[in-house]
Amino acid sequence: MGILIRLAVSAFTVWLATLVIPGITVEGTTGRKVLTVVAVAAIFGIVNAVLRPIIKTIGCWAYILTLGLVSLVVNGLLLLLTSKIAEALDLSFNVDEFWPTAVLGALFIGIVSWLINFFVPDGGDRDRKSRDRPHQQYGQRGGYQDHR
User: Fold this and answer.
1) What is the residue range of 57's domain?
2) How is the chain classified by DSSP, letter by letter?
3) How many structural domains does the chain have?
4) What residue ranges are annotated as transmembrane (predicted)?
């Protein structure tokens, strides 16, 4: 369930970025736009999940040297790569250029996603609560019961 919430949040923030950042566009009818934004959010999530750890490992010196500011460049490049993959898959999502469009778009998507995820809990929050109380179980009447 948590992955669906994260996908919805990412899709929403990608859609907001198309409205706020000039140069990030999605074309088509309303239904096509929704499907495109969801697909782009999934692609962006996969690209981030696969490439970000590799980039951080290889370029850890750059992160240290720039005090993490190189992450803005990396995020912009990953958004631009997502745009190219979407274009190859015949999705109508486009990021015009690296600077300032991709960098600002990735920064916007990251900040808005973080804010929304801060206020909207996903399934992982419930798992963390149960790990914090290993001696308690959720009872049939809707409350935690102590089983010591």
Assistant:
1) 2-125
2) -HHHHHHHHHHHHHHHHHHHSTTEEE-S-HHHHHHHHHHHHHHHHHHHHHHHHHHHHHTHHHHHHTTTTHHHHHHHHHHHHHHHHHHHTT--EEE--IIIIIHHHHHHHHHHHHHHHHHS--HHHHHHHHHH-TTEEE-TTSSEEE--
3) 1
4) 32-51, 58-78, 98-120
